[in-house]
Amino acid sequence: MVVAAHPDDEVLGCGGTIARHVSAGDDVHVLILAEGAVGRRGATRADAEELRAAARQANELLGVRSVTLHDYPGQRMDSLDRLDVTQLIESHLEKNAPAVVYAHFWGDVNADHVVAGECTIAACRPVPQTSVQRLLFFEVASSTEWAPKSAFQPNWFIDVTATFDRKMQALQEYELELRAFPHPRSEEAIRYLAGWRGATAGLPFAEAFMLSHNIDRSGC
Q1: What mean pLDDT is predicted for residues 162-189?
Q2: CB distance 39 to 75 below 8 Å
Q3: What's the chain's Rg over C-alpha atoms?
Q4: Which of 110, 130, 184, 197 is the Cys-Cys partner for 208 at CB 3.0 to 4.6 Å?
Q5: Average pLDDT for 68-89
Q6: Are residues 70 and 113 in contact, defined by beta-carbon separation less than 8 angstroms?
Protein backbone atom coordinates (compact mmCIF):
# COMPACT_ATOMS: atom_id res chain seq x y z
CA MET A 1 0.00 0.00 0.00
CA VAL A 2 1.18 3.49 -0.83
CA VAL A 3 0.10 6.54 1.19
CA ALA A 4 0.65 9.77 -0.73
CA ALA A 5 -0.30 13.35 0.00
CA HIS A 6 -1.17 14.48 -3.54
CA PRO A 7 -1.75 13.03 -6.99
CA ASP A 8 1.66 12.45 -8.63
CA ASP A 9 3.54 11.90 -5.34
CA GLU A 10 2.93 8.16 -5.58
CA VAL A 11 4.50 7.96 -9.04
CA LEU A 12 7.36 10.33 -8.31
CA GLY A 13 8.20 8.56 -5.06
CA CYS A 14 7.75 4.91 -5.94
CA GLY A 15 6.14 4.47 -9.36
CA GLY A 16 8.80 2.01 -10.51
CA THR A 17 8.47 0.05 -7.29
CA ILE A 18 4.68 -0.07 -7.65
CA ALA A 19 5.07 -1.48 -11.16
CA ARG A 20 7.62 -4.01 -9.89
CA HIS A 21 5.21 -5.23 -7.19
CA VAL A 22 2.46 -5.57 -9.78
CA SER A 23 4.76 -7.51 -12.12
CA ALA A 24 5.52 -9.87 -9.22
CA GLY A 25 1.82 -10.55 -8.75
CA ASP A 26 1.30 -8.37 -5.69
CA ASP A 27 -1.88 -6.37 -5.08
CA VAL A 28 -1.04 -2.69 -4.68
CA HIS A 29 -3.45 -0.18 -3.13
CA VAL A 30 -2.86 3.58 -3.35
CA LEU A 31 -4.34 6.12 -0.94
CA ILE A 32 -4.01 9.79 -1.98
CA LEU A 33 -5.00 12.04 0.88
CA ALA A 34 -5.35 15.59 -0.48
CA GLU A 35 -6.13 17.60 -3.55
CA GLY A 36 -3.01 18.54 -5.41
CA ALA A 37 -3.90 21.62 -7.43
CA VAL A 38 -6.30 23.82 -5.50
CA GLY A 39 -3.68 25.03 -3.02
CA ARG A 40 -1.49 26.50 -5.78
CA ARG A 41 -1.70 30.09 -6.93
CA GLY A 42 -3.98 30.45 -9.94
CA ALA A 43 -5.21 26.85 -9.84
CA THR A 44 -8.90 26.19 -10.47
CA ARG A 45 -11.40 23.51 -9.55
CA ALA A 46 -11.07 22.26 -13.14
CA ASP A 47 -7.34 21.78 -12.57
CA ALA A 48 -8.12 19.69 -9.48
CA GLU A 49 -10.54 17.50 -11.40
CA GLU A 50 -8.01 17.08 -14.22
CA LEU A 51 -5.45 15.98 -11.65
CA ARG A 52 -7.83 13.42 -10.12
CA ALA A 53 -8.52 11.99 -13.58
CA ALA A 54 -4.77 11.86 -14.23
CA ALA A 55 -4.29 9.95 -10.96
CA ARG A 56 -6.78 7.30 -11.98
CA GLN A 57 -5.18 6.89 -15.40
CA ALA A 58 -1.59 6.88 -14.08
CA ASN A 59 -2.37 4.20 -11.51
CA GLU A 60 -4.24 2.15 -14.08
CA LEU A 61 -1.09 2.20 -16.21
CA LEU A 62 0.93 1.01 -13.21
CA GLY A 63 -1.58 -1.78 -12.63
CA VAL A 64 -2.65 -0.98 -9.07
CA ARG A 65 -5.59 -2.90 -7.60
CA SER A 66 -7.26 0.24 -6.19
CA VAL A 67 -6.66 3.98 -5.94
CA THR A 68 -8.57 6.07 -3.40
CA LEU A 69 -8.63 9.85 -3.79
CA HIS A 70 -9.54 11.56 -0.53
CA ASP A 71 -10.43 15.25 -0.44
CA TYR A 72 -8.30 16.87 2.25
CA PRO A 73 -7.41 20.48 1.31
CA GLY A 74 -4.13 20.71 -0.57
CA GLN A 75 -1.31 22.62 1.17
CA ARG A 76 -3.47 22.87 4.30
CA MET A 77 -3.10 19.42 5.84
CA ASP A 78 -1.14 20.91 8.73
CA SER A 79 -4.43 22.52 9.83
CA LEU A 80 -6.11 19.12 10.20
CA ASP A 81 -6.47 17.08 13.35
CA ARG A 82 -3.64 14.52 13.11
CA LEU A 83 -5.80 11.88 14.78
CA ASP A 84 -8.39 12.16 11.99
CA VAL A 85 -5.72 11.67 9.32
CA THR A 86 -4.16 8.76 11.20
CA GLN A 87 -7.51 7.05 11.65
CA LEU A 88 -8.30 7.43 7.94
CA ILE A 89 -5.00 5.71 7.09
CA GLU A 90 -5.72 3.04 9.70
CA SER A 91 -9.09 2.31 8.10
CA HIS A 92 -7.38 1.59 4.78
CA LEU A 93 -4.75 -0.56 6.46
CA GLU A 94 -7.52 -2.61 8.05
CA LYS A 95 -9.34 -2.90 4.73
CA ASN A 96 -6.33 -3.86 2.58
CA ALA A 97 -4.05 -5.60 5.14
CA PRO A 98 -0.80 -4.68 3.37
CA ALA A 99 2.46 -6.37 4.32
CA VAL A 100 4.51 -3.42 3.00
CA VAL A 101 3.66 0.29 3.23
CA TYR A 102 5.36 3.15 1.36
CA ALA A 103 4.90 6.70 2.65
CA HIS A 104 6.39 10.19 2.51
CA PHE A 105 9.65 11.00 4.21
CA TRP A 106 8.70 13.21 7.17
CA GLY A 107 11.39 15.86 6.56
CA ASP A 108 10.10 17.29 3.27
CA VAL A 109 9.70 21.02 2.62
CA ASN A 110 6.02 20.36 1.77
CA ALA A 111 3.90 20.46 4.94
CA ASP A 112 1.32 18.05 3.50
CA HIS A 113 4.08 15.48 2.96
CA VAL A 114 5.18 15.91 6.56
CA VAL A 115 1.66 15.30 7.88
CA ALA A 116 1.15 12.31 5.58
CA GLY A 117 4.45 10.77 6.65
CA GLU A 118 4.02 11.35 10.37
CA CYS A 119 0.43 10.06 10.40
CA THR A 120 1.48 6.95 8.48
CA ILE A 121 4.15 6.29 11.09
CA ALA A 122 1.47 6.43 13.78
CA ALA A 123 -0.92 4.24 11.79
CA CYS A 124 1.79 1.63 11.08
CA ARG A 125 3.20 1.32 14.59
CA PRO A 126 4.24 -2.33 15.02
CA VAL A 127 1.53 -3.57 17.37
CA PRO A 128 0.84 -7.34 17.38
CA GLN A 129 -2.34 -7.20 15.28
CA THR A 130 -0.95 -5.12 12.41
CA SER A 131 -0.46 -6.63 8.96
CA VAL A 132 2.39 -4.21 8.22
CA GLN A 133 5.75 -5.96 8.25
CA ARG A 134 7.79 -3.27 6.50
CA LEU A 135 7.48 0.53 6.41
CA LEU A 136 9.53 2.53 3.91
CA PHE A 137 9.71 6.27 3.26
CA PHE A 138 10.14 7.63 -0.27
CA GLU A 139 11.54 10.89 -1.61
CA VAL A 140 9.67 13.30 -3.87
CA ALA A 141 11.65 15.46 -6.27
CA SER A 142 11.28 19.21 -5.54
CA SER A 143 10.15 18.52 -1.97
CA THR A 144 12.62 16.24 -0.21
CA GLU A 145 15.86 17.79 -1.44
CA TRP A 146 14.69 21.39 -0.91
CA ALA A 147 14.11 21.08 2.84
CA PRO A 148 17.02 22.70 4.75
CA LYS A 149 16.49 20.31 7.66
CA SER A 150 16.07 17.29 5.43
CA ALA A 151 18.00 14.24 6.52
CA PHE A 152 16.86 11.80 3.84
CA GLN A 153 19.55 9.14 3.97
CA PRO A 154 18.38 6.15 1.94
CA ASN A 155 19.28 2.71 3.21
CA TRP A 156 16.93 0.62 1.03
CA PHE A 157 17.23 0.56 -2.76
CA ILE A 158 14.82 -1.17 -5.13
CA ASP A 159 15.90 -2.06 -8.66
CA VAL A 160 13.41 -0.44 -11.06
CA THR A 161 15.45 -0.92 -14.22
CA ALA A 162 12.78 -3.15 -15.76
CA THR A 163 9.88 -0.90 -14.72
CA PHE A 164 11.34 2.60 -15.04
CA ASP A 165 9.79 3.18 -18.47
CA ARG A 166 6.37 2.36 -17.03
CA LYS A 167 6.94 4.90 -14.27
CA MET A 168 7.73 7.54 -16.89
CA GLN A 169 4.64 6.60 -18.89
CA ALA A 170 2.52 7.05 -15.77
CA LEU A 171 4.14 10.42 -15.12
CA GLN A 172 3.06 11.56 -18.56
CA GLU A 173 -0.51 11.48 -17.25
CA TYR A 174 0.57 14.16 -14.77
CA GLU A 175 1.64 16.60 -17.46
CA LEU A 176 0.10 19.43 -15.42
CA GLU A 177 2.65 18.74 -12.65
CA LEU A 178 5.80 18.33 -14.75
CA ARG A 179 8.21 21.22 -15.34
CA ALA A 180 10.97 22.08 -17.79
CA PHE A 181 14.57 21.12 -17.03
CA PRO A 182 16.48 22.00 -14.86
CA HIS A 183 13.52 21.90 -12.47
CA PRO A 184 13.85 18.73 -10.33
CA ARG A 185 10.34 17.69 -11.36
CA SER A 186 11.29 17.54 -15.03
CA GLU A 187 11.52 14.27 -16.92
CA GLU A 188 15.28 14.67 -17.33
CA ALA A 189 15.87 15.30 -13.63
CA ILE A 190 13.67 12.38 -12.60
CA ARG A 191 15.67 10.12 -14.89
CA TYR A 192 18.95 11.47 -13.52
CA LEU A 193 17.79 10.84 -9.95
CA ALA A 194 16.85 7.24 -10.73
CA GLY A 195 20.22 6.79 -12.40
CA TRP A 196 22.08 8.24 -9.42
CA ARG A 197 20.12 6.16 -6.91
CA GLY A 198 20.82 3.15 -9.08
CA ALA A 199 24.54 3.90 -9.30
CA THR A 200 24.64 4.22 -5.52
CA ALA A 201 23.54 0.58 -5.30
CA GLY A 202 25.27 -0.79 -8.39
CA LEU A 203 22.11 -0.75 -10.53
CA PRO A 204 21.11 1.04 -13.75
CA PHE A 205 17.96 2.55 -12.18
CA ALA A 206 16.68 2.46 -8.61
CA GLU A 207 14.24 4.12 -6.25
CA ALA A 208 15.61 4.94 -2.81
CA PHE A 209 13.88 4.65 0.55
CA MET A 210 14.52 5.00 4.25
CA LEU A 211 13.55 1.91 6.22
CA SER A 212 11.53 2.44 9.38
CA HIS A 213 11.06 -1.18 10.40
CA ASN A 214 11.21 -4.63 8.86
CA ILE A 215 9.59 -7.38 10.94
CA ASP A 216 10.22 -11.06 10.23
CA ARG A 217 7.25 -13.10 11.47
CA SER A 218 8.36 -16.32 9.77
CA GLY A 219 9.49 -17.89 13.02
CA CYS A 220 12.98 -18.57 11.65
Answers
A1: 96
A2: yes
A3: 16
A4: 197
A5: 96
A6: no
